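My current task is to audit a protein record that another person submitted. Alongside the sequence sits a line of tokens, each denoting a local backbone shape. Where you disagree with what is written, explain briefly why. This is what I was given:
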Amino acid sequence: MLNRGQVGAAFGSAVAAMGAAGLPVTGATVPEGYLLRTRYLKFVYEDEQNSCTSRTHAHPEHVVFWPEWSFGAVEVRGELRTVSLGEGLWVPAGTPHAVPERDGDLLALHITPAAVPGRGSSVAIVQMIVAARELLLYLADAGMPREERIQAQRVCLNLIATDPTPKIHLPIPHDPRIAQICRRILVDPADDQSIEHWALQLSVSSRTLARAFRVSTGTTFGQWRTLARMELAVRLLDQGVAVGDVARRVGYRTMSAFSVAFQRELGTTPKEFHPSLVR
């Protein structure tokens, strides 16, 4: 459990930094001696002066914003950031931010900096898995002994992953001809059929099809197929499939070629993504 000295030191340094920056400074939201507190932004609290508003402000605590059902938006340092279900936006203590709308399903998880020393020094997307979200919502309403609550809060902090799983965003085609090709690729990303093959199937020239593919998806045929392969690769790696097997299933003859493509698209190698699966 945090002692008063730890909490006081963390709170004092954060307030000093915010004051020096000329920002409106809220008070502490987390009760003394505890690690975190979750609040629904659509509700009004007894300490409303410490809540988030549409006016730029900062807190002496880290804040993780996350949606209960769909998505939400937070303005951080003048940039609008959105989060979807399953994600959270980690805003470090002292970081200027504002919440444009408070009538949605956005929640704010305030975390005492001393509870997570050395963690969360920059704005980042974090994973908010179902277990973490459900436990945080339970703690927001349930009554329980102090020590039990602190233990549960520690579990919540451990469940919030600061290294989110890489995501692949596949552009959705609006041209029915391109959609037909994309569906086939998604069924079998390892299919090596060329764009010339697909052009022949559709009775158009390869140049016409290539142009239509770019207009419809914003990417080339080859780029879209690579993204489809990486999307499947991430899912297979998450399921525990060995890297060598994943490489073969998504159309690469060698692990080295797969690793190069994976790193180019996701910024990390398959080994770094799941080091235990390299075999």
